[in-house]
């Protein structure tokens, strides 16, 4: 089990590192897709769109993704974290969490618990 993160400013990367699993960045690291399932942490941009870099990963590997957490800005109202809603709808990947910035400690615990409950300790 590992985490893939799509982070523009580094805040989502900081959130990902709090969870306690190996972290790989889209477009920066060699991602070991052959090592099984992963959890995705991505972001919304343009008021709720899915980043192209995330779409490229999901098109090829969505079957191995057990869940997604998405960063966003609450100032966007109904578009807050909307990329996560779209990923859930298009790829049928459970949206586990929406968070702002680098998230709070209790939010990273939500993701960690979700992963552990699926037998990925």
Could you tell me the radius of gyration in angstroms?
13 Å
Spatial order of the strands forming the largest sheet: 2-1-3-4-5
Give the low-pLDDT segments.
none
Query: What would CATH call the architecture?
Result: 3-Layer(aba) Sandwich
Tell me the structural class: alpha/beta
Can you characterise this structure?
The chain is of the alpha/beta class and 121 residues long. The protein has one domain: Rossmann fold. The chain is 33% helix and 21% strand. The protein has a 5-stranded parallel sheet with strand order 2-1-3-4-5, sandwiched between helices. Helix 1 (11-17) links the parallel strand 1 (2-5) and strand 2. The protein is globular and about 35 Å long.
What's the layout of helices and strands?
Layout: E1 2-5, H1 11-17, E2 23-25, E3 38-43, H2 52-61, E4 65-71, H3 82-91, E5 95-99, H4 105-117
Parallel strand pairs: 1-2, 1-3, 3-4, 4-5
Which terms would index this structure?
single chain, 121 residues, alpha/beta, Rossmann fold, five-stranded parallel sheet, 33% helix
What's the quick description here?
This protein is of the alpha/beta class. Helix content is 33%, strand content 21%.
